[in-house]
Each structure stands twice: as structure tokens, then as C-alpha cells.
Amino acid sequence: NVAIVGMYALALRMSGSRPGSILASATYSLSSAALLYAQMPLAAGFALAPWAFLSAIRLLDAPSVFRSALLGLAAGAFIASTTPGYAYVVTLALFVFVVAHLIQGAADSPARQSFRNAMAFVGRRSAYLALSAGLALMLTAYYFAGLMLGTVPLLPEPGAASALERAGDLPSLVDAVALRLPDGSAAPGALVF
What we know:
mainly alpha
């Protein structure tokens, strides 16, 4: 199972404890049963999320183009395989995790006592993170285009026959931001320009 191996590797990297990693991977993978029952796309993203976090840790610990590409592939696969809401929440959590890791790394090392050295540490890793983000964006551009055009719905509707059928009933990302209804009219309380 992709979720079991991913969470085991992530927990082992973060804690170093094999028994703790086994417990973490078992708990994480067994908790996905409710997701599988509810929605398959959510479960696919659930299985790939640990790989994105693991790739981020590996990149931040020892930056390289290869590790940057791995993070971009992991993040792109995660975003393209799950629902927009879950992708947003986990990507936001990944962003907070990366920023916290950068701050901790810049502050912890004795060789980085000066502000200039700390900024060089953050800047080098940020360049590799930007490369990863660009690759993930290229891999998921069709997905974001579908969100913008309304062919991929923001929220899944249980019982609908297909994504295209749901897309006709739900607002696209552009409509949601502009507070417009799918028929083009303004939603109640929306500012009309």
C-alpha cells in the first residue's frame, strides 16, 4: 500500500524509531478506510500526501536538483489525484511545514550565527523549492485550467454520475472567487462591478 510505505518512511525520517514508524504507518493507513468509503479521489490523495512531506524534508536537508524534481513530482501527483479542497488544505500544511523547517534550519546551526549566513541558507533552499513548485505547476496545469473553466468542480456532489455532470451544477474557481452563481448571476451579498 502506497500510504503505508509513505507514512513509514516519513515517520522513520522524522523520529528515527522503527516501532513508532510502524505504529504511525498502521494508524495512518487504517484511518483511510472511511475516506475510501466516502470518496476514492480523496483516498488517492491521502495515500500520496506523506510522499510530498517526505520529499520536502529530503530536499530541505540536502538540496539538489534531483530532490527538487522528486518534490515537484510528488506534489504534482498528489494535487492531480485528489479533490481540490483536500489538495488546498494539505498543500497549505506543506507550505507551513516547509517555512517552519526553513526557520528552524536557519536558526539551529552554529555555522549560521550571522543574519547573512542564515539568509544564504534560506535563499539556496528557496531556489530549489521554487523549482519544485514550477514542476508541480506544470504537471497540474490542466487541473487548474479545469478549475478555472468550471469543468472540474470545487466541491464533489455525492450521487452525481460524472465530473462533467457535477461541473454544470457547481461554481468554477473563478465564479466562486467572484461570488457568481453557475448561471452567471451574482450571488446574494456579492459586490457587482
